[in-house]
Amino acid sequence: MDLPVAEWKSYLLQKWSLLPKSIQVTVSTAETLSDVFLQSSSLLQPEDEIFLKRLSKGYFVGKDSGAPLFYREEGNKKFQEKDYTVAAVLYSKGVSHSRPNTEDMSLCYANRSAALFHLGQYETCLKDIIRAQTHGYPERLQPKIMLRKAECLVALGRLQEARRTISDLERNFPASPTLADFPSQSVQRNLHHLKMKVQEKENLPETFPAALAKTLEGVDLGEENKQLSNASSSVGLCMDPLKGRCLVATREILPGEPLVKEDAFVSVLNPGELPPLHHSLDSKWDTRVTNGDLYCHRCLKHTLATVPCDGCSYAKYCSQECLRQAWELYHRIECPLGGLLLTLGVFCHIALRLTLLVGFEDVSKIRKLCDEVSNKDIYLPESNSRVKTLNSGLGEIEKNGKIVETPIPGCDVNGKYESNYQAVFNLLPHTENHSPEHKFLCALCVSALCRQLEAASFQAVATGADSSRLKAAAAPELCPDVTVWGVAMLRHMLQLQCNAQAITTIQHTGSKEGIVTGSRQVRLATGIFPVISLLNHSCSPNTSVSFISTIATIQASQRIGKGQEIVHCYGPHKSRMGVAERQQKLRSQYFFDCTCPACHTEVHEMAARPRWEAFCCNSCRAPMQGDDVLSCGRRGCAESVRRDHLASRLQDLRQQVGMAQKLLSDGELGDWQKSATHLQNSLRVVEARHGPSSVEMGHELFKLAQIFFNGFAVPEALSTIRKAEEVLSLHCGPWDDEIQELQKMKSCLLDLTPSL
């Protein structure tokens, strides 16, 4: 997903292995990224491009004239089954393959409006009705869609507009000859029904649900940070002699306090599960639901009513405004390259989009940044150097007995670190740590992309199209700037391995009829966050991250003392991996050995054994050691126990967890007490493995709260809701679905309490 598809990756690695040793040495010993790019790109042959083109064609992203009818019929089947969500997605797929101002597009929009109406999404339904009419919805079907419009307006309380729509329909329906065959009795019956609804609404007192009246306020970072954009004033930027740039607390920080709120400088939606490279003959069009069908490709907002790109069937947006912005900023260049970008992977796509946002015309800016990076001294001082951090964004390095003032990389002339392209460019690519094969692979991906852009540029010139944004993509011999641009893209591809941030979302699982709904965290997109990238790793972090669309919020998950480093988890967490596995992953992906307190403790106390494979002493909670008979590893403690006895108890707990999960999935209210008992047992396992304040603990408490709520166990439900809110608030903002659901349950129970 991040790197190219397996076929292209294998092809390039085989190509590398067949290169003469002398060429491999030349690429391996290249001193600069420019040398790596030039040496590697010269090895890209026409037969390589032909193979890549064949792979790219496997991902069909164009518009197929036969697809709208197919998807409309498939959507109709789901609609008849009352699966309105999947029906809406299938209609959206039909919209994506339709040409503007055609009956195909209007019918797909109209059908989708019906599905949205049944889902209670009345505002979105109205937008689809307007879209259907804009794209030429047939006159003979107008009564159907106008009745739906009136129903939505009544449901939304927009009674004046509803009356006007009903009047228009009454006036126009009998007079239009094209509507003569439309079942008039049905229309008149529905109109009468709507009039009655309007009268009922008018007689009701004017109310507005509190939940709708409230608008979700964003997290307030408080006082502006004059040194670091998008960060709280409690966060400072520092230089460390070993770690380089890092963030520290300038005052004591309390759990749950927001520290950073940053919009992604660039993000690319992960394509999710795509059709195989070679479609089977019996499945020309894919009906699976992927992230690309449910989220805006620009702002990542969840939507069932996507607006498609006019030029391709892949890119979809939540609104016409998002479509316009994406087109102007980058998609008009990316649109004809969709299949190629899916083949080359997300990292290559992000590298291209970064340069597109800077602008092809501003290659001089990229050249200047390249020169600065090439000419500056390495900013990580020797381990025996002394570093001080200044509030102005400057560091003092003691070198050869002298104090040298040096700017912190990424800061502007005033010493402020902004979330901009300069900060992105100064993220470390770790060129010296990547293998020669990996650098060769990335360089050839970038070279192939440059040549495709070059071909598109020449085609635009030949057809007289506007190619002003493609001029810098000309071949090196015609435009030397493409080398600078290609090197910048290569730098970004290498940066992403250590600096890319997974943008995640919580997806709910389980049936709506069950006692509880489960949830799981899924990766939605990959983004670059210049400020968040300054956070160093810890296997036991003191922060957590949550997302709304493309905006990331970092919160303190525990108390952080003044001067203490603010740290983030890169993935390997002490509650999910043993120390040996964590070290191996961090070393292979991020090129460092972790020395955080968690790793230090486990190396000495657990001899690299994963935490959940070791038993703890029942007396002092220290790790137990031994083979058949386990003894406490702490001096002075004589506790011992047979391993098979503990293994049997663990197996019993696992069986109870399984029973709880089965009872929860069955959704029978009569078993809520059994479910609660088993889930409480599983909570002990979760707490031991992940910790009492972990997000995993929060999710399990949420499930338990649902069980007590559905079982009408008011005191137990209120107590569990309070605990779940306390834990989840350390990791999620107030917008989180589970926190909002907990608040609704609490409000309902408190309203009932006086009558009990």
UniProtKB/TrEMBL annotation:
<dbReference type="GO" id="GO:0007507">
    <property type="term" value="P:heart development"/>
</dbReference>
<dbReference type="Pfam" id="PF00856">
    <property type="entry name" value="SET"/>
</dbReference>
<comment type="function">
    <text>Protein-lysine N-methyltransferase. Monomethylates PRMT5, modulating its transcriptional activity. May also act as a histone methyltransferase. Plays a critical role in cardiac development. Acts as a key epigenetic regulator of gene expression during cardiac development via its dual activities as a methyltransferase and negative regulator of HDAC1.</text>
</comment>
<keyword id="KW-0808">Transferase</keyword>
<dbReference type="GO" id="GO:0005737">
    <property type="term" value="C:cytoplasm"/>
</dbReference>
<protein>
    <recommendedName>
        <fullName>Protein-lysine N-methyltransferase SMYD4</fullName>
    </recommendedName>
</protein>
<keyword id="KW-0963">Cytoplasm</keyword>
<dbReference type="GO" id="GO:0008270">
    <property type="term" value="F:zinc ion binding"/>
</dbReference>
<dbReference type="InterPro" id="IPR046341">
    <property type="entry name" value="SET_dom_sf"/>
</dbReference>
<dbReference type="GO" id="GO:0005634">
    <property type="term" value="C:nucleus"/>
</dbReference>
<dbReference type="InterPro" id="IPR044421">
    <property type="entry name" value="SMYD4_SET"/>
</dbReference>
<dbReference type="GO" id="GO:0042826">
    <property type="term" value="F:histone deacetylase binding"/>
</dbReference>
<dbReference type="Pfam" id="PF01753">
    <property type="entry name" value="zf-MYND"/>
</dbReference>
<keyword id="KW-0863">Zinc-finger</keyword>
<keyword id="KW-0862">Zinc</keyword>
<dbReference type="GO" id="GO:0008168">
    <property type="term" value="F:methyltransferase activity"/>
</dbReference>
<dbReference type="GO" id="GO:0032259">
    <property type="term" value="P:methylation"/>
</dbReference>
<dbReference type="InterPro" id="IPR052097">
    <property type="entry name" value="SET-MYND_domain_protein"/>
</dbReference>
<feature type="domain" description="MYND-type">
    <location>
        <begin position="296"/>
        <end position="335"/>
    </location>
</feature>
<keyword id="KW-0539">Nucleus</keyword>
<keyword id="KW-0479">Metal-binding</keyword>
<dbReference type="InterPro" id="IPR011990">
    <property type="entry name" value="TPR-like_helical_dom_sf"/>
</dbReference>
<keyword id="KW-0489">Methyltransferase</keyword>
<dbReference type="InterPro" id="IPR001214">
    <property type="entry name" value="SET_dom"/>
</dbReference>
<keyword id="KW-0949">S-adenosyl-L-methionine</keyword>
<feature type="domain" description="SET">
    <location>
        <begin position="233"/>
        <end position="571"/>
    </location>
</feature>
<dbReference type="InterPro" id="IPR002893">
    <property type="entry name" value="Znf_MYND"/>
</dbReference>
